[in-house]
Every structure is written in structure tokens, then in C-alpha cells.
């Protein structure tokens, strides 16, 4: 989360809220090549705003982070 927050601030974005939702189980087992099967993990919610360039940089940061299993966008 720190690296993602750094990317947002460096691209002149605004970080509004980071919520730590705690440890939660997934509805089904997920498989990630680098770590194997995952049944639970630490969940976070990140609310931020910024330019389209910042959005692309944040996506790249999350895609290449082995600790991120999935991400949702709206």
C-alpha cells in the first residue's frame, strides 16, 4: 500500500482513504503462480483521485505486486 500511495502522490493525485479490512477468507481458492493456492488474505480498500496517467501507473503497480491477488476498479 505504501508503494501505491507513493505513486499516487508523485503523479499529483490525492489519497483520500485507506481502510484495512483485516484478514478474510475467499469464497473459493484462488491460484497465483508466484505463491500457489490462496484461501485467505489481508483486504484493503483504497480511495483516491488523480489523472488518467496516475490511474495507469497505479494499475501497473498493482499488477506487478505479488502480494495483490485481485483488484477492483469502478
UniProtKB/TrEMBL annotation:
It comes from Durusdinium trenchii. It comes from the Eukaryota. The lineage of its organism: Eukaryota, Sar, Alveolata, Dinophyceae, Suessiales. This is Uncharacterized protein.
Amino acid at each position: 500500500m505504501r508503494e501505491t500511495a507513493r505513486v499516487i502522490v508523485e503523479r499529483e493525485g490525492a489519497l483520500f482513504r485507506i481502510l484495512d479490512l483485516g484478514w478474510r477468507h475467499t469464497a473459493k481458492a484462488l491460484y497465483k503462480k508466484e505463491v500457489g493456492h490462496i484461501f485467505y488474505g489481508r483486504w484493503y480498500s483504497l480511495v483516491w483521485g488523480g489523472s488518467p496517467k496516475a490511474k495507469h501507473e497505479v494499475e501497473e503497480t498493482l499488477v506487478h505486486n505479488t502480494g495483490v491477488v485481485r483488484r477492483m476498479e469502478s
